[in-house]
Amino acid sequence: MTEMRLGLRENLPQFTLLVVLNAFVGAMVGLERTVLPLLGEQEFGLTSKTAITSFIVSFGVTKAVINLVAARVSDRIGRKPILVAGWLFALPVPFLIIYAPAWWWIDLANVLLGANQAMAWSMTVIMKVDLVGPKRRGLALGLNEFAGYFAVGVMSWVTGYIAAHSALRPQPFYLGIVIAIVGFAVSVLFVRETHAYAHLEAAAALQTASGVRSSLGSVFYVTSLGNVSLFAACQAGLVNNLNDGMSWGLYPLFFASYGLGVGSIGVIKAVYPMVWGVLQVATGPLSDRFGRKELIAGGMIVQAGGIWLTGLVPTYAAWLLGAGLQGLGTAMVYPTLLAAITDHAPPTWRATSLGVYRFWRDLGYAVGALLSGAVADFVGLGAAIHLVAALTFVSGLVVARAMRKPSPVPIAVGA
Length: 415
Hints:
The chain has helices at residues 12-33, 35-42, 49-52, 54-77, 80-90, 93-99, 103-132, 137-165, 174-189, 195-204, 216-226, 228-257, 262-290, 293-312, 316-344, 350-378, 381-402.
């Protein structure tokens, strides 16, 4: 049996496999980014923006809750069983969308998709953190998020292109069947369990797996409120996905209201996650070298600028630039927030703490969809976009004010 060693180079084949696998996880979300809001309006005849964005609410709430549970359970039974279960939830999703006779089928599909994303994406994050150890965490998370969100962008463009040359369904969703089958097969056949690496890191830090008593309630409190830096990270994560939920649900409708075709909407919808994905390869390691706070606060403010530009200047060029700025800002924030959480959590309950953060972050999808949908219904699409931009700007100021450098020794958590 090969001796276990922490490090990116030491675990490169398995690490690379997990990067590729997360691209498949991201591609499942990318299937919906361009087409689904238009499908609700044009094929199902929905006029309420709140009703159209209901699929994001079901996705976000499910993903948030299961993030918390999946991470906790993975500390008990291991990472791979949760990863495999996540891909089982993905298998029915494209069929439900293809054959949906009513919009509630779409909502149901997104409950399953939320479970898939919570389990599969969470485990690819945690497994990479397990493998690389404490020194290259930012790089590891940057590569993970690059693969996932670059795939979101590519699939957003591909589905928009297919829809423009065929129909809003079923053709764009055939790819989802292949993606789900391949992701499940790779997880079962080739991915190895990494839980033992977390215990190896704990031993290296002179801790033992039983040496830290950490109930879910105590970890939830410390991660959410008990430490000001972790609170700053959680609120930034929530607001980041709040604005992503708004852009997912409302941007296609906003662009279409100006007469933009589905193919062109797909291009704009691809720019944001592709820029976000590619730049995380740089921003993850930058946070290792220069710290987390400045990248997070600055990234939230850059996102706000991109959202405001999108709402204020209704031209195709401005929308492309706005998407690029939103992608740049999110790249600065996304892997850095994950790394900031791991800075403060010891290996024995790090997965649970990441689950708490991801609970708050992904709850932002539901909050953003409900808030922006309701504002759009009562005041208009433009007002919803401006409100979300303002919230994003304020969130960046909170990080600038509240976040601290990590302590050399992680905070202890009581029973």
